[in-house]
Amino acid sequence: MLFMSSFGYINFGGYLLMSSFFKSGDTGFVFSQLGFPLWLVITLSLAGAVFLFFSMTKLSKYFVEMASVEVINNKGQRATFIASLIRTPLFLGIIVTVKIHESKCQHRTGKTCNPK
After folding, report:
1. How many helices (H) and strands (E) does the chain have?
2. How far, in Å, CA of 99 to CA of 104, rounded?
3. Is residue 73 part of a domain?
4. Which of 19, 31, 105, 115 has the least C-beta neighbours within 10 A?
């Protein structure tokens, strides 16, 4: 449940964050169609980044509770634990999500969709 809730927060914040980079994406398209000014889209993107930072900071203590006392007290083991439990899945998820978006966009439009 912890992973699903954290990835839900990441998904929501990511949609806001990416809206200023991809006009063909879900939120970017909606913001574009509603005529949001650029400053508002950038503000919402920054709000998404701030939301992600604070929500993941709050949830990180629950991930750390999965480690043993020895891992928590050893700085090297703790860094490896955090990388394998949080960082690696997060970065891989970001790469996969961007690639899926690019392939869907290319399939819809027949060309590669780049940020504008």
Report:
1. 6, 0
2. 9
3. yes
4. 115
Structure tokens, 72? 């928590």
Task: Give the model confidence (pLDDT) of 10-61 as tens digits.
Answer: 888 878 887 777 777 778 888 888 988 989 988 988 888 888 888 888 877 7
Is 35 in contact with 56 (CB distance < 8 Å)? no
Nearest-angstrom CA–CA distance, 104 and 107? 5
Question: Does residue 35 belong to any structural domain of this protein?
Answer: yes
Burial class (CB in 10 A: 0-12, 13-18, 19+), 13: buried
Q: CA 28 to CA 34: how far, in whole Å?
A: 10
pTM above 0.70, yes or no: no
Provide the number of structural domains found in the chain.
Answer: 1
